[in-house]
Amino acid sequence: MNRPTELLLVEDDARDIELTLRVFREHKLTNHVIVARDGEEAVRTLLPDDPAVRASNPRVVLLDLKLPKLNGLEVLRRIRGDPRTRAIPVVILTSSREAPDLKEAYEIGVNSYLCKPVEFDAFVSVVKNLGLYWLLLNEAPDAS
Amino acid sequence: MNVTLALLLLSTALQLVAFIAAIRLIRLQRMRSAWMLLTATVLLMLLRRVLSLTEGVYPALHAAMRGIPSEAVALLISILLCLAMWRIRATVGDWRRSELKLQLQRDLLERIARRSPLGETLEALVVAAEARTPGMIASVLTLDDDGVHLRHGAAPRLPNAYARAIDGVAIGPAVGSCGTAAHYRRRVIVEDIATDPLWNDYRHLALPHGLKACWSEPIVAPDGQLLGTFAMYYREPRGPLPHELELIETAAKLAAIAVERERIETALRHSEQRLAGIIDSAMDGIITIDERQRIVLVNPAVERTFGAKGSDLIGKPVEMLIPDRFRPNHADHLRQFAATGVTTRGMGDFGTIWGLRADGTEFPVEASISQIKMGSGRLFTATLRDITERVRSEAALRESQRALNTLIANLPGLVYRCLNTPDWPVEYISEGTVALTGHSVSDFMSRKIHFGDLVDPLDAQRVWDEVQAGVQRKTPFTLTYRIRTADHQTKWVWEQGQGVFNEAGELLALEGFITDVTVHRQAELDLRASEERLQLALLAGRMGTWDWDLRTGKIVWSPGHIRLFGLEPDAFDGRYETFAQRIHPDDLQPLEVARQRAMREHRTYEHEYRTLWPDDSVHWVRGRGEFTYDESGQPVRMVGVVSDITEQETSRRRLAESESRLRAILETEPECVKIVGRNCELLDMNPAGLAMIEADALDQVAGQDVCKLLEPTHREAFRKLNDQVLHGKPGTLQFELVGLRGAHRWMETHSVPMRDAEGTISAVLSVTRDVTARKRAEEELLQAHALLEERVKERTAQLEQINRELDAFTYSVSHDLRAPVRHIGSFAKILLDNHSPCLTGEARHCAQTITAAAAKLGRLIDELLRFSRLGRAEIHRRPVDMNRAVREVWAELAAQRRVDHFKLVLGDLPIAQGDPNLLRHVWTNLLDNAIKYSSQQPNPEITIGFFTEGPHVWYHIQDNGVGFDPRFADKLFGVFQRLHREEDFPGTGVGLALVQRIVQRHGGAIRAHGQVERGARFEFTLGLTRHEQAD
User: What is the ipTM metric for this complex?
Assistant: First the structure.
């Protein structure tokens, strides 16, 4: 399995993880997803302290904002603050649509900001389109 | 002894007795020749007898005498004796006839010698004469001292009435017998009074008394002076017999002796009295001493001079009056005088000797001495004069002479004696001439030059005239004139001189003194000019001067002074009373008091008083004067100035009134009024101000820097204000005052410039009020504000906290609430979608309900969040085109709903001022509601327009939908409030609440009108006027 990680899902809520992965799975979008359950784990996954550990380099990061330990915006700031991860596309997928969060996220350099709809059909539609776009349509920068 | 010798001796003794008797007779009788002859006879007889007795004793003499026969001597003696007897014979013949006369004489002389009173003596004479001539009545009249009237002397038998009648008769050529006799000083014999013409005027007096004849003999003193008359009356006409004539003659002579004696006695008595008076009152001391040099008489002057009582001196040796060392000399001198002095009357030599007073002091005496032979002894009388004063004054005179010489020699001028001619030739001139005229003394004395040559020709005539006037008056003259000196300078000189006259009153020369007054003269001229200017100034300044000589009482007023008293020139007579009359009666007493006090205390007199002019007008004047005092401190002169102060006084009184009114206002003014000088020094302050600064009196703070009373931080501002006001700009300042006792007050002062008469700003006048209470109120207000601010801050912080919490809440709601809702809906949907075959119909229905409820919950949450977010959103006002906003919203809504059949009527809405996003929400909700509730109508119509109500612009939107029950109109805007069932009209009940929230946050309002099935109408305003909206 030397295939590079295609998607890093940073999400603490197990039900959301299940719903999100179900949408990906039902629409055959990817089977190589890494899930980080909090901000710290997400950072550790992307920017390991030990040089021996090889960092995962996903095609896209789905980032929830409300996370234990480091929240989503801080994780985003780490990703954009490090040359190794600066270029990785990050999509924020969160329950709320608070204007300040939106503004700050874009200032830090998020690539997209999506709200999880309450209605399941709408949610499925959002996640499906997201996966299609970022994993199939979008040309990621060359990952070495 | 033989008988011859005895007879011879007896004869000789008898001859000696005869000789002595002859000598005495010679002395008693006037018939000297007879008695000399007798004496010579007896002397010869005596000589002859002595020669015979002494025969043999002087043989030589007898030998010489031998040639003269004794008989010849005897013959000579006999012839001499005969001649003497012959001469005496006549006398002896008269003796008997003279017996009566002699008896009379003896009797009278005895009386005279006994010093009987003259009256008695004369009466005795009369009685004696009458006794010897039977029938005769004698009368003596004495002549008055006036030498004209005859007085009754003695006439015991003359009828009293007659005696009284003739008493006092004046002598004359035909005044009876006596008056005529006295007049002619010769005997007058009237044999018959009845016929004699001499008695024509007096006959009627004499005849009634039976007096028929009267012979009168004048009584004449040996020196020829008439003393009176002796008269003999008879009761029958008859002439005198010779012896009767002799008797009358003798009686007259005796009467003369008596009267003369009386006269001499009286004269002597007077003379003695005069002498005693002279001696007693003599300034000189008179001492009489006897030959033994014992004092027998001293006069009071001696007592005074020697300081001893006369009773202590009498009988004492005169030496006690002479100092020891002079006593021997004095005794010699006196003996010598006694031996050589030839006269008893002539004054002796004057010589200065020394006297010794009882107290032992010595003094110079000038004495003259004379001696008088008194019976057996001699008396010396010395006249003594205390010349202490004279010696002293002589010394003083010498000293004064010497001083005079020194003075003349050193005088700043010259002393002269010259002749009174126009060229003034000099007889004496002092050395001062060299300095004054440049000519030497010898130039003048040698007559090389005369003083007249020096006198300036311009003054020469005047000098001559004035000097001559002085000479005429015989008074000293003083004059000032010009002379030309040797070096051709002109000098002013002052001269005082006078004529020197001899006893006959003839002018001998002129004497005087001349001195250089050039400097004084110039000063005097300057002074006079200055004096004239002063008088002019005084007149112009309505002033005058007075000069009061307090010794003479004479007052001199300048013309200005006279004018100030309203008098005509020369109308003031120089008397104080005249001045006093012109003083207002009420002012005279105070003026006197002021003047007396000034005089007593040696101070300047200054007084203001009113004068009464002759026209009865009253004028105020001020007098100011100085006294001059002599060495003893007596005031001798008062000089002063008087000025008219009527106008000043009037304006002063007005000023005083105005000032006192102002003062009264200031005193009662409740606020502080003060005047401050250029350097903030306090000049004046009213009581209210003093109370504020806690001072008891103005003196306590006057002149001090008021800034010291200020809180230090306010002083700078105060000085700045003072400077600003001094530059003419009034100002106001609040400052904190610290009172003298430490109380703090807040003051508010308003200061304005104070200008003097010239308009110069000289001080700052401030009215200051105590604003402590106000300030405190302000401070409290400020504190309250601060507190409020604090509260507001706290409140704001609380609100912010709440907001933050609300944000957090909203955030949580967004995240945490939506997530489970989504999960519920999602998993229910998954159940329906993926597991439908396994589910019963009942189960499927349940899952569908869960899904729907979750969806509804999701929408509610979203709406609430929107409400919360928009309700709190900040408003950014800007112009909003409402027409455009409505059209855009309509277009959006049209995309979501079927609105083809709707009719939208849109009026021309005015541009609004508001937040564009929020206003869009408003329109969205309102339009959405209108569409929703009228969509079921067959011809739905929505009308949008505006109207103005008061100043506000109202927008309205009306539909023709289902409407609402107006009873519930107020519930329309509550959150989650719905008037329709969800099944009929889906909605959350948040829309209108949000609209109201937005409108209210714009400061506006919203209201709803509606009826069931009759449509609804909403009207809102943004709280702005049309004008404001236009901006």
Answer: 0.79
